[in-house]
Design brief:
By secondary structure, this protein is an alpha+beta fold. It is 30% helix and 23% strand.
Length: 473
């Protein structure tokens, strides 16, 4: 039977790792996989999705032998490179409804709210120290073109009888985030920020305590499918009855999945610690802030008083094949620095101490999909988080665990399960060339609209060709 070949990640050099990873000095804490091993379930990928899946399986079936194989160390991928923003799925209620229907979409949103409560309880109990601060998630506008980007989500949540968001005045926004750049928006009060690497470390440690076997620095090179699959690493093989592929953007190596996903990068910077200056301008808490550009800005104040400031770049990987250039921007975050100075002019002289990038697994529907490989009913996967995962991967873990354990429940029967109904993307090279064209148009449009200027009609038309783009009311 033919092998399934996975793409080995380009391990980031120390200087290219995120602030979060530097801050925790996180590294491998478990042994490499060696020799012959056997497992009931083998999970490929030691990020949030893989670790939550392992925990959910052990919760429901403690006798299950679960082995996690991680190429670098747990949290070294997207789970340790993101912006640390925690918010529910209610902001994506329209996208969810389009895929699973309104009723289940509301249930999934509630499940993500429950996941935030679970994170809060893990911190309160002392199980995971993750710097979780539920000071609110702000969805804002900093130009006329961005105004009302949240209207559809606000209307749908109100129609569902859910009071999840609060509309803010200009004065309220400035008083909370210390900037007048964003002047309209809403807040999800029971949301906020987290330290991504601390969360990853905590999940790893919790999984080990719960009996999950984790092997870091153990990249999976090939999987030989069968009734009992052979998962091969450089030093050995794990024989597994069920396999879960939880490798985020690296799933693009599998042709049948690449039809539905594309890989882009997001770029992030972190300033020096400036707690007194941030206090002075009025930004004192752990709020998460986003604006509504097509290449959205997202930022937070860390517990130690840095600003972590990120932005989607729109850089796309040809055939989903990416390497070290997706670990760090060759421009070293210049776009982000320019936007940081626009949003916070008082910080122009503050040093930028870290800049990094990270790959994002995107699907056109903007919400993740779960299934098994077409010809292999015992090889499961979850992908397409589109950069929103901290409160969503605990839910993903429930879905994948139910699929693996062959349970007949709300999770295994979710409308998020099943890839055949999802939107396919154009084949290469048309996808790549089209994405490049759209990216340049979006950048031109953003540059005009942020100054409240109208982009040209051709620029506007091309920029709206993004797959599954949300229509603004």
């Amino acid at each position: 039977m033919s092998k399934i070949q996975l793409r080995l990640p380009s391990i980031a050099a120390q200087d290219d790792r995120s602030f979060w990873l530097h801050d925790t000095a996180i590294s491998a804490a478990t042994n490499r996989q060696e020799g012959e091993q056997h497992a009931d379930v083998v999970i490929v990928g030691g990020g949030y999705t893989g670790l939550w899946t392992a925990l959910r399986i052990r919760e429901q079936a403690p006798e299950t032998r679960v082995v996690v194989l991680e190429a670098d160390f747990c949290g070294s991928g997207a789970s340790g490179r993101n912006g640390g923003q925690v918010h529910s799925w209610f902001a994506e209620l329209d996208h969810l409804s389009a895929v699973v229907g309104e009723q289940e979409a509301q249930q999934l949103c509630v499940a993500s709210v429950d996941a935030i409560a679970e994170l809060e309880q893990l911190q309160k109990s002392g199980a995971i120290d993750m710097d979780l601060r539920l000071d609110g998630w702000f969805w804002t506008a900093s130009s006329k073109s961005q105004e009302g980007a949240w209207n559809r989500a606000l209307a749908l949540t109100k129609a569902a009888g859910v009071d999840r968001f609060k509309v803010l005045s200009t004065a309220e926004i400035e008083a909370r985030i210390g900037s007048s750049a964003s002047y309209a928006g809403i807040v999800e009060p029971n949301a906020g920020t987290v330290h991504p690497a601390k969360l990853a470390i905590g999940l790893r440690n919790l999984a080990i305590v719960k009996g999950v076997i984790i092997h870091e620095q153990s990249p999976v090179t090939n999987i030989i499918p069968g009734k009992c699959c052979k998962v091969q690493t450089p030093r050995g093989t794990v024989h597994g009855k069920k396999i879960v592929l939880a490798t985020n953007a690296w799933l693009s190596a599998i042709p049948e999945l690449r039809q539905y996903m594309y890989v882009v990068d997001s770029q992030v910077i972190a300033t020096a610690e400036i707690p007194d200056l941030l206090d002075h301008i009025g930004w004192r808490d752990g709020s998460a802030i986003c604006d509504s550009q097509m290449q959205v800005l997202y930022y937070q104040r860390t517990k130690g008083g840095r600003i972590v400031f990120g932005r989607g770049s729109g850089n796309v990987a040809f055939r989903g094949n990416f390497g070290a250039d997706f670990n760090r921007s060759p421009e070293h975050g210049q776009d982000n620095i320019r936007e940081l100075h626009r949003v916070y002019p008082a910080l122009r002289d503050v040093p930028i101490e870290f800049d990094w990038a990270g790959a994002i697994d995107c699907v056109a529907d903007h919400v993740p999909v779960f299934d098994h490989l077409r010809e292999h009913p015992n090889i499961f996967y979850g992908m397409g988080f589109n950069g929103t995962g901290i409160a969503q991967t605990p839910v993903a873990g429930r879905i994948l665990a139910s699929l693996v354990l062959e349970k007949q429940d709300r999770w295994s029967s979710s409308g998020l399960v099943g890839i055949s109904r999802r939107l396919k993307l154009p084949p290469e090279p048309f996808r790549y060339l089209g994405a490049k064209l759209v990216r340049h148009a979006i950048r031109r449009r953003n540059a005009a609209e942020i100054q409240n200027l109208a982009p040209g009609s051709i620029t506007r038309f091309i920029s709206e060709l993004t797959p599954g783009r949300r229509v603004q009311d």
